[in-house]
Design a protein that fits this description.
40% helix, 22% strand, 234 residues, 5-stranded parallel beta sheet, alpha/beta
Length: 234
């Protein structure tokens, strides 16, 4: 697994790299947002550890640009920051980060969170399943999803996590999922982050599949419980 560490404090970057390489990960580091995007395009890492306050482009902007161009490999993003305010966590997650850690942090906990994020990738494969509903078709084996628009089939440009989220919903149409169940399904039982990351990714998925994301037709909120997917079977 390739990991890109974006951290302008050399001692912290070296510490993170030391612990991750001890666990067998391949790491590369950079110290500013512009070089982070360049390395991302060259390396296509499996995961980025991204400091919020870095020179050039800050972590939020880097995260947003990475999510706008996921390409063939859409990395997990673990955001680091010295800020601990709730609003900062919400902003970080809303730009597409998968998890969030506040400095100072335990290097061992960081490694555990990295493993928890990557475990979902390592669990994938071996499936051969196609889900079809009236408006959607999703091929788990081919990792492809499309929406029916009249006689036309329109491919959906989904990130890795958005694909898995839609796959989970389509595998059990009508089932109500709470945040804990979705986290366990998508990230695994060792997830350490904020449960509201689920809300962020549901909102992003809705923007790509709903005619009106503000009034969703397919991925509906069940107040006080969670979410469910509704679409007549094909």
């Amino acid at each position: 697994m390739e990991i890109l560490i974006v951290e302008d404090e050399a001692e912290i970057a070296q510490l993170i790299q030391l612990y991750l390489e001890k666990e067998g990960f391949s790491c590369r580091t950079c110290r500013d947002g512009i070089s982070a995007l360049q390395v991302f395009q060259e390396q296509k890492p499996d995961l980025m550890i991204l400091d919020l306050m870095i020179p050039g482009l800050d972590g939020l902007e880097v995260c947003a640009r990475v999510r706008q161009k996921p390409g063939a490999k859409d990395p997990f993003i673990l955001m680091l920051t010295a800020k601990g305010e709730e609003i900062d966590r919400i902003i970080g997650l809303s730009t597409g980060a998968d998890d969030y850690m506040v400095k100072p942090f335990s290097p061992k906990e960081l490694v555990a969170r990295v493993r928890a994020l990557l475990r979902r990738t390592m669990r994938q494969g071996g499936q051969s399943q196609v889900y079809r509903t009236q408006n959607f078709v999703l091929d788990v084996d081919q990792r492809s999803a499309a929406r029916q628009n009249g006689d036309r089939t329109e491919p959906l440009d989904l990130t890795t996590l958005e694909f898995d989220l839609l796959s989970t919903f389509m595998s059990y149409p009508g089932r109500v999922w709470n945040r804990t169940q979705l986290i366990d399904k998508l990230w695994g039982s060792n997830f350490f982050g904020d449960e509201r990351v689920v809300d962020t990714h549901v909102a992003r998925l809705r923007k790509k599949i709903e005619p009106d994301p503000a009034n969703p037709t397919f991925v509906k909120t069940v107040i006080g419980v969670g979410y469910k997917f509704e679409d007549t079977a094909a």
